[in-house]
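Researcher: We're reviewing a set of sequences before deciding which ones to prioritize for further study. For each one, I'd like a predicted 3D structure that I can look through quickly. This is Histone deacetylase domain-containing protein. If possible, include the structure in token form so it fits the rest of the review sheet.
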Amino acid sequence: SGIIEIGLIWRKERLIMKVGFVYDPIYLKHDTGQHPENAKRLEAIISHLERTRLKQQLTPIRPRAASIEELSLVHDGHYISHIQDVAQRGGGWLDADTVISSNSYEAALYAAGGVIKATEAVMNREVDSAFALVRPPGHHATYEQAMGFCLFNNVAIATKYALANYKLERILIGDFDVHHTSVTIHVEPCSIECDQCQVACNLRKRSP
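Model: Here's the predicted structure for Histone deacetylase domain-containing protein, in token form for your review sheet.
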């Protein structure tokens, strides 16, 4: 068909899209024990990418630690210091859902910095797209509160960073989750359009 022909022509001209991949073993050091959000989540993804040989098709992007200045684009300075202090004391529970270990603060810096590096790679045309496989996760973290397994709001930080460093008018954040997130808390609403893409599963018993 015409669509297939156009697709083949496009593929010849475009060759293969270059996909960046952010990952570092430091993300496994965020030790949450048997918590639902644990290191096995990333290990399973890495295992699948290696087993299917998809990993070798990706362009590695080395993460870096986000600076305090970058974290402060979204978070309160006292909150940032609090996360660091709790980690330095060996970790503990921040709320009913969120726990950190002694290495969690460093891992969180590299999680936020990894998403920034992915953003930079795309904006600088080093890759066509990028996937940041990082943890701790971030989309529930608010200005001054950890929430829902999340410490620093990685996506919001990278968004604010991109708006400040590149000539962008707005950024669309697509958040796929089963409930509302805090991904745009304290991110300028005049600069960002956020599309909360909610996924709802409704299981019903079929009538006989």
